[in-house]
Amino acid sequence: MIFILLPLAVLTAGVFLALFIWAVRTGQFDDLETPPVRILNDDADRPLPTGDVETRETIVVSTRDC
Amino acid sequence: MSAACAHCGLDVPASEQRTHATQQFCCRGCAQVYQLLHDWGFDGYYRLLERQGGRGVPAKVSGRKYAELDDPALLKIHAEPCGHDRLRLRLYLEGVHCAACVWLVEELPRAVDGLASVRLNLATHVAEVEWAPSAISLSRIAHALDTIGYTPHLAQDDRLEAARRHNDRALLIKAGVAFAAAMNIMFIHLALYAGELNDISPEFARFFRLMSLGLSLPVMLFSAQPFFRTAWAGLRQRVPHIDLPVALALLGAFGYSAYATLLGHGPVYFDSLAGLVALLLGARYLQQRAQRLALERTSVLRHVAFAEFARRLDAEGLATEVAVTSLIPGDKVEVRSGELLPGDGIVLHGNSQLDQAVLTGEATPLPVGPGDWVVAGATNLGARLVVQIRAVGPNSRVGGLLRLVDEAMRGRAPMVQFTDRISKAFVWGVLGLATALGVGVLLGSGGDVGLALQQVVALLVVTCPCALGLATPVTFTSALARAARAGIFLKNPESLELTRQVDTLLLDKTGTLTEGKLRLVATQGMPKALDLALALEAESAHPIALAFRRAQRTPLGSVHRLEAIREHPGQGIEGLVDGVHVAVGNEALLRTVGVAPTAAHQGQAEIWSAQGLSPLFIAVAGQVVAQAALGDPLRTDAKAALKALTNAGLTLHIVSGDHPAVVARVARELGLTSDHAHGGMTPEAKRTFVADLKAARTQLPHTGKLMMVGDGVNDAAALALADVGVAMQGGSGASVAAADVVLTRPGLMPLVELWRGSHRVMNVIHRNLAFSLIYNLAGAGLTIAGLVGPILAAALMPLSSLTVILSSVLGRTFQTSAAASRTSGGRSWP
Questions:
Q1: Stretch 92-121 of chain B: residues touching chain A, C-beta under 8 Å
Q2: Which helix (H) or strand (E) holds B297?
Q3: Alpha-carbon distance B534 to B582, whole Å?
Q4: Which residues make beta-bridge pairs with B424?
Q5: B613 and B630 in contact (C-beta within 8 Å)?
Q6: CATH code given to domain B309-391
C-alpha cells in the first residue's frame, strides 16, 4: 500500500509546487504590499449618484498654493 | 480657531480659513482635488482614508497638459503594445501615500474613457497604465492623474531593474523547490526515525530512503546551485567564501547518504541537507527582496527632480510642451512661476528670482533679469521668464554634476561583507578540524574508511555555518524594516556596518541643518504696519510673500481693500491698502518709492545683514515704520540632534555652498568652532573635501568612517563618495539616488536614530555569532566524541537556526520614537 500512497503524496506535492512556480513566473510575488490593501478597498461604498445637486456642498476655492 | 483641511486633514492656516464655508482647505490644490473627486463620484476615497486611519497629504496639482507624452518617438521607447489597440506603460506617481490612493488611482478608468486599467504598486509608487490610443491620448491620462493630485513621471525601467526582478523570481523558485522537498523528506525521515525504534521492516526502510534520495535530487541539482557556484568562484580566486563549508557539507552529506542508501546501511542525512538549503535560500531571498525594493524606490526618484518638459516657443511666441530631451541649443523656452528651468541659457525677457538652493546651497533667492545666465534645475520663483537655451542634458551644469555623481558611484570599491571576513577564519577552522578528525579516526580504528567518512560528514553537517549564513541576512532584513518605520530608509545593509564605525560627520547647511525655506525670523516696529504688510503680501506669489504668510497667525478676512499693487522685481511690492500707501521691500525699493530710512533703521538692517539675514523695510504713507528680517532658520531639532552626536564622540563639520559668513554664524549657533565651518563650497569642492579627508585617513591607523549628510544636487557627488551618504527627507532626486541612506522623516533626529540603531544591529549580529559559535563548538565536540548520528544532526541544525532567527527578529534595533510616529502615520516617502 505504502508503495503507492507515498509516491502519490509526493506527486500531489509536485502539482502544488508546479502551481507555485507558475505563480512566481507570472510575477504574482513581485508586489506583496498592494494586493492585501486592494482587498480592503472593496469596502469603499458605492459612490453618490452623479448629478445629485442637493448633496453637493459649495466649495470655496482657496487662493494659496501649497 | 483651528480647522482641518477637508482633503488632506492638515491644519488650515489662518490666512486660508474662510467663514461661511462648510469645508476648509489648506491650499488651492486640495480644494481642486476635493471638488473633482466629488464630481467624479469618488467620495469613497475619504471613507477609505478614514477607515484605514490614514492621513492625506496636501495635493499638488500642476494643471499641466503633458503634451510631451504624446511624442510618438517617446511612446515607441517606453510603451509596449498589449492586445488589440492597447498600449501599456509605467508611470511613477508622485503623491501616493496610502492604501486609499491605490483605490483612487485604480478606479480612474471609471471616469476617464479609453483608459483600460491602472495597477498601482504601493511599494514603488509605480502604476502600470493600459489604454486605447485610438480613444484617448497618454497626455490626457497624465493630465487626469495630475488633477487628482498625483504628478506622473515616466518610470524608466532600466535593464538592471528587470534583471534584478528576474533574479528575485529565480531565487524564490529555488527556495520554493527546496522547501517543498525538505518538508516531504522530513515526513519520510520521521517514519524512518520512528521505524528505528519499532523495528521497521528492511524493505520499507529501503523504500523510504530511496524516496528521500529521489526527493533530494532536485535540491542538490537545482536549488543548491548558488552555493556551489559561489564556493567554486571563491576557490578559483583563492578566497574561502562562506558558501564553501556549506557546499562541502552538502556534497559530503549527499554523497555519503546516497552511498549508504544504495549500500543499504549506514546513516543518511537527506533531511538535514534539504532543510539547510531551504532555510539559507529563504533568508537570502528575504534580504535580496528587501534590497531590490529599496533600490527600485530610489532609482525611480532619480529621474524626477529634474525638468521633464519645457514650454518651447515657436516663431509666433506660442508655447508648446515638449519633452526636455527634444530641446536643442538655440530654442526659446518659457518658464512659468514654480517651474524648473529645463536647460542652461540666457534670460531674454522677464525679471524674476531663482531658487538655486539644490544646486548651489545658497538659501537666498537669486534675482535674474535679461542677459543673465541661468542654469537647469533652478526653480523660477517669480514672474514668467523667457530663456534662450544654450546647453541641455549632459552639457548643462546639472548634467555635469550628475556625471560627477555617477563617477563617484562607479568608483566605489565593492564592499567586503561582514560575514565574508568572519567566514575566512571559520572555513579554515572547519576544514582543519575535519581533516584532523578524519585522520584521527582512520588511525584510531585501524583504517576503517567508512567510519572515518561517516564521522567527517557528521562534523561537516553539524558545523555547517547556517547561523552565520542565516543570522546576518535575517537580522539585516528585520533591521531594514524597523528602520523604515523609524523614518530611515537603508539601501544596503552594509551601510549599517559602516555607520557604526563613523567618527566624522559632514553636514550640508541649506536644507539639512536648516529647512531651506525663507521665514520671517525677526520683526520690529508697529504691529499695525506688519498687518498692512501681510495684507499686501497676500497678493503676491513671491517667496518673501510666502515667508510673510507662514508667519501669519490671525485669520485674514476681507478686511482690507487693496488697490494699485505693483511688484518691483528684486526690490519688493507697493500698493494702496485701505487707501493708504504701503511699501514692503529692501533699500532699493525705498529709493524707488522715494522714502528715506532713518539711521536707526539702517543700523538695524546692517546688523541683520551681518547675521546673514535679508532685512526688509515696511513704509506706510511715506515713512519707514517697521522692519523685518528674512532668513532660513535652523531646524528645531538641529541643536539637540547635533549635541547627541557630539556627545557620542563624533567630529562634526559643516560644508555649505552658502556665503562663509552665514555658515560661520550657523556654526556658532550650533556650538561648533569656526574651523569646522566651511562656506562657499562648490559641488566640486565638496567632493574634493570628502576625497581629501578620505585620503588623509588611509595614512592613519584606526580611523573611523566618514558620513556625509545632504539634500541638494550639489551634495550628491560628496554623498556618493563618502563612506556613508545620507539624504535628507525631501531631498533632490540626485541626492536620494546617490545616498546609501535616505531619511523619510523631516528633521535631524532620524540621523541620531540611525547612528544608535547601527550599534544595536551590530550587537544583535555579534550575539548571534556567539550563539552559533557555541552550537558549533558543542556539535564538533559531540561529533569528535562519536555521539552524533543523523537524529542529533537533524535536531541540532534547526535548533541553532531557530535560536538565531528568534534573536534577530526580537532584537531591538531601530526604535520609532513617539514623537516621530505622531508626525507621520506609518508610511512616508519623500
A1: 99-100, 102-103, 106, 119-121
A2: helix B270-301
A3: 10
A4: none
A5: yes
A6: 2.70.150.10
Q: For residues B506 and B494, what is the distance between their CA atoms, to the nearest angstrom?
A: 20
Task: Choose among B508, B434, B411: nearest CA to B442.
Answer: B434
Domain ranges (residues) in chain B: 1-157, 160-298, 309-391, 484-515+635-757, 519-631
In a domain, A55, yes or no: no
CATH number listed for the domain at residues B1-157: 3.30.70.100
Confidence band, pLDDT 50/70/90 cuts, at residue B713: confident
A33/chain B closest Cα distance in angstroms:
6
Total domain count, chain A: 1
What gap in Å lies between CA B474 and CA B476, rounded to an integer? Answer: 5
Distance CA B717, CA B257 (A): 55
Is residue A56 a contact partner of residue B38, using CB atoms and an 8 Å limit? yes
CB atoms A47 and B43 under 8 Å? yes
The ipTM, to two decimals, is 0.72
What is d(CA B231, CA B247) in angstroms, rounded to the nearest whole number?
Answer: 7
CA atoms of B268 and B698, how far apart (whole Å): 52
For A12, the domain range is 2-41
Whether the pLDDT of residue B252 is over 80: the answer is yes
pLDDT, average across residues B494-512: 88
Q: Specify whether the CB–CB gap between B38 and B51 falls below 8 A.
A: no
Average pLDDT, chain B: 82
Nearest by CB: B48 against A3, A43, A48: A43
Please tell me the distance from the alpha carbon of residue B466 to that of residue B156, in angstroms, as a whole number.
Answer: 39
Size of interface A-B (CB pairs under 8 A): 140
Q: Which residues contact B740 (CB under 8 A, 6 or more apart)?
A: B490, B491, B492, B495, B498, B724, B725, B726
Say whether residue A53 is in contact with chain B using an 8 A CB cutoff.
no
pLDDT in tens, A30-57: 888 888 888 777 766 544 444 444 444 4
Interface check for B10 against chain A (CB to CB < 8 A): the answer is no
Which span out of A33-47, B169-183, B294-308, B699-713 was modeled with the highest average pLDDT? B169-183
Alpha-carbon gap, residue B801 to B812, rounded angstroms: 19
CATH fold for the domain made of B484-515+635-757: Rossmann fold (3.40.50)
pLDDT band at B552 (very low <50, low <70, confident <90, very high): low
Query: Least CB-CB distance to A60: which of B18, B39, B45?
Result: B18
For an interface test with B, give the residue of A5, A16, A33, A41 to mutate (most B CBs within 10 A). Answer: A41
Of B801, B808, B811, the C-alpha closest to B281 is B801
**CATH number belonging to domain B519-631:** 3.40.1110.10
Q: Identify the weakest region by mean pLDDT among B381-385, B545-549, B574-578, B636-640.
A: B545-549
Whole-number Å distance between alpha carbons of B86 and B88: 7
CA separation for the pair B186, B248 (Å, rounded): 22
Give chain A's end-to-end CA distance (angstroms, integer): 75
Contact B31 A56 (CB under 8 A): no
**Order of strands, sheet of B373-374, starting from the edge strand that comes earlier in the sequence:** B319-323, B309-313, B332-335, B385-391, B344-349, B373-374
CB-based contact B123:B78 (threshold 8 Å): no
Cell of A53: 445637486
| Chain A interface disruption, residue of B10, B25, B40, B93, most A CBs within 10 A | B25
Look-up of cell digits 558611484: B409
Residue of B656 and B9 predicted with greater confidence: B656
The vertex-B134 CA angle with B128 and B137, nearest 5°, equals 55
Contact state of B28 with A27 under an 8 Å Cβ cutoff: no
Q: What is the mean pLDDT of residues B501-508?
A: 91
Asked whether residue A49 is assigned to any structural domain, the reply reads: no
